[in-house]
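Before relying on records like the one below, remember that each one covers exactly one chain. Contacts with other chains, cofactors or solvent are not represented anywhere in the record.
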Amino acid sequence: MSRDEPLVLGIETSCDETGVGIVRGHTLLADAVASSVDEHARFGGVVPEVASRAHLEAMVPTIERACETAGVALTDLDAISVTNGPGLAGALLVGVAAAKALALGLGKPLYGVNHLASHVAVDQLEHGALPEPCVAMLVSGGHSSLLRVTDVTGVGDGTPEGAGVVSMGATIDDAAGEAFDKVARVLGLPFPGGPHIDKAAREGSQVAIDFPRGLTSRRDLERHRFDYSFSGLKTAVARWVEARERSGEPVPVADVAASFQEAVCDVLVRKALDAASSEGIEDLLIGGGVAANSRLRYLAEERAASLGIRVRVPRPGLCTDNGAMVAALGAEMVARDRVPSSLDLPADSSLPVTDVLAG
């Protein structure tokens, strides 16, 4: 770690985690997270108003904890970065307002960065500089996306097709993480569903039930080759469980969990590797909360090896939303001498992935 590398604090508030990370270059110094997930669990999903209030209450203590862990003062920072979209509008506003206040009070440059691109940049904290180009598969509660990344800071040739980050495909209905949460609810498992389904699936059979693979028929692939759909799968699981309950038969939770998880991971990996192969790209990066799923990691590495494709996945703690990923992208902006954002930076809940850095 060089003292010449940029020291950046990142703030992430796009959903229900208040994340503050501090990095120097590609070295993680602090990753403080305050989660409000327990407050949302009784509702079976994230409540935007509850999340926004939790961010307000957690912001200052989380910043203080990050600085203490990193052993730095706010005045030591070279820049502030913050997620300005996409995400929940109210939640984003809390983070953006806090970042503006810090940047203005400290006289430091401000970088408003894209949440999805941050999930790509965070891998640098564990595995070093990103291979560019690479294909990134981002899978979480709100997103299932395939991206071609030639410059993680978003700089391209000025055209949508030539942007540094280009969308190759995305979910057309439920994201993968959303499907995990909904199926967990059907099975009586706690929220968030991902970790609990992953755990239950270890005791079940992946081939016990033949659940559908969305958008994989020949006709679907012609129109949606790299897109995802998990709504039909979620409904198929619910109907299968309801049929068992109507007949008075016990529901084999482990088998349902394993078979459902296999259907999701099979489609995710199949399309991601097809995207990489179609572009002649030899590096696949996986990020987002669902990237912590053990079966997804195993399938991706197993199938990629046979195609000569390298797979990079951050450790589970860096897959879920966190401030470290925002700081990592901010540090890359500073290192590549990108123009900082203005102090009238907006929060944009529907920010497109090609808009990596706000003006």
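The longest strand covers residues 27-35.
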